[in-house]
Amino acid sequence: MKPAAALVLSALLSLGAAAAGAEDLASFHNKLGGCQTCHGASSVTAADVPDDEIDINGKCMTCHGDYKKLADKSKRFDPHNSHLSDRSPINCTVCHAGHAQPKLICNDCHSFDMKMPFADAAARPAWDDGIDEKAVAAAEAAAPRETVDVLVIGAGSAGLNAAIAAKRAGASVVLLEKHAYAGGNSMLAAGGYNAVGTPQQAKKGIKDSVDLYVKDTMKGGRGKNDPQLVRILAEQSASGVKWLEDMGADLSDVKRSGGATVSRTHRPHGGMSVGPHIVDVLRAEATKEGVGARVNSRAVKLLLDKDFKIAGAIVHGKHSGYYKIAARAVVLATGGYGQNKQMIAFYRPTFKNMTSSNNVTSTGDGITMALNIGASMTDIDWVQAHPTVGLDSRILISETVRGVGAIMVNIKGARFVNELTTRDRASDAILHQPERRAWLVFDSDLYNSAKMVRGYDHLGMLKKADTIEKLAETCGMDPATLAGTVRSYNAYRKAGKDEAFGRPDMPLGIEKAPYYAVAVAPGIHHTMGGVAITPQSELLDIQSRPIPGLYAAGEVTGGVHGFNRLGGNAIADTVVFGRRSGEHAAQYALGLKSAK
Ligand SMILES: Cc1cc2nc3c(=O)[nH]c(=O)nc-3n(C[C@H](O)[C@H](O)[C@H](O)COP(=O)(O)OP(=O)(O)OC[C@H]3O[C@@H](n4cnc5c(N)ncnc54)[C@H](O)[C@@H]3O)c2cc1C
Description:
This protein is α+β, with helices and mostly antiparallel strands. The chain folds into four domains: 3-128, Flavocytochrome C3, Chain A, domain 2, CATH 1.10.1130; 136-187 and 278-383 and 525-595, FAD/NAD(P)-binding domain (3-Layer(bba) Sandwich); 190-274, no CATH class; 387-523, Succinate dehydrogenase/fumarate reductase flavoprotein, catalytic domain (Flavocytochrome C3, Chain A, domain 1). The chain has 22 helices and 17 strands. The strands form four sheets. Strands 1, 2, 6, 7, 8, 16 and 17 form a seven-stranded mixed sheet that branches. Strands 10, 11, 12, 13 and 14 form a five-stranded antiparallel sheet that branches. A three-stranded antiparallel sheet has the order 3-5-4. Strand 1 (146-153), helix 9 and strand 2 form a beta-alpha-beta unit. Helix 9 (157-168) packs parallel to helix 22. The longest helix has 27 residues, at 569-595. The radius of gyration is 24 Å and the shape is globular.
């Protein structure tokens, strides 16, 4: 095991050991002063505890200090250090559950080449383990607990954008999130956001156009995308960047992603991952607008009225049980189904049992709920395997690594594909190589320029050596083959033409020691298909008519990406269509209200 990994392990094991020996937090605090120690009252029922846990986390801080105090920068591997900040969605009770044993949920987002204590994050928590159909029926028969203009389901990028847009348009909004924290797959996005016509592109002299963006996206999707949706994506991509920047986002850097003719993938400076950054910004903005996510609250059923218009949803809250929210409009923003093994086996049997880069939140709830009210699906069986998921892990080795210069070789050390081709083609190419896996190889220039690569190193995923031959030996490749591959690649780069595979862009050579390699294999990454929508983000029924009041955006929808999504287009999709769905939902809801 790598030293870094060993250190992480020892830190985690000591945490785990402490946790395993400890009683749960409620029992411990109860001895100190009864229920009021945490809840501020001597006797509390579950119904007194809000699902979003903002109140309870405030109580933690009254004794333990604020997050800044808890985040001890002198301890390198203390999870408080990297996760607790004013903007972090991970608060105390995400890990330190009150009435249950503490649980390390690190595996929600990270994966390690070691056994994690309490690594049961993928299992649904006890309160959320299955749906009680009788309780759903009772909630449906009862009066609504609240009435709202727009109900947004899912607090990833699409949902947060929708909630902000609807609130700004003057609607009252509730934003539901089933998980203990907001962010979904969006908070894992590493590479960037595709946009055309930004000042960032102009500054770099990049010649791009809406038509070129549309052409690249349609080509990437094998021509199966909905052209109207693609044009909206391209046309509104730059105003989406501006919308985020006005909230404080940094999207100052532009690079090129696979399948794109020019550089149009925007991301924060210094190689910082795009997803956690924009989720932080959107969460802060949503809170400012008064629409913070109501976490620990799973929507379990969409409700239609007698005229087949949307009427609201049944929600299952951690503390508050099953209840009905009446809503004039609903935005479905529940993300994809990349972590739902049954749905993958059903829709894409050839990917059965494949690892997935997705957050555990990607369980396809929105698709199931929509199917139950007669929604229409588009390209539902199209699932993208990302070519470079860390071997035997859930960690995505971002496309940026190839984009900024890494080459991809097979287990012998030979290149076999244009590294910048589309994901489906790169994945297919790896699956045709011996042992269906590959290595990404790069030098210290790339290591120093791409911050995320240092993150992979931190997790013990990189092999390193002072010469190419030694690197090959460490990785079990043939030293002469790898050395020959690197020599040829450097020569192609100097000549400005990749004679072997036609790679269009070779920003860095592999010339400066030390040299690095990381083992990769394809893993489920994106579910392109989902509910069918109109250009106004209205969700279509089985006869392709909009279901009045029901909207959808983001990975739960189909049509934007066709059969294959280009890197950087999903975040653009969530911002452009998230915002549109919120605006249209608000317009519809406010129209209904004023018509009364
Ligand atoms: C590792 C990784 C890296 C990526 N990198 C990039 C990139 O660089 N650029 C790019 O364009 N795309 C990238 N993608 C894809 C992109 O991140 C996603 O497609 C996109 O963020 C999906 O956003 P979303 O809002 O639709 O869904 P999500 O972000 O998944 O959010 C959905 C939310 O809905 C909640 N939810 C689900 N069901 C319910 C329910 N029943 N009730 C209440 N809440 C519910 C979930 O818990 C979740 O929080 C990446 C994906 C992964 C996995």
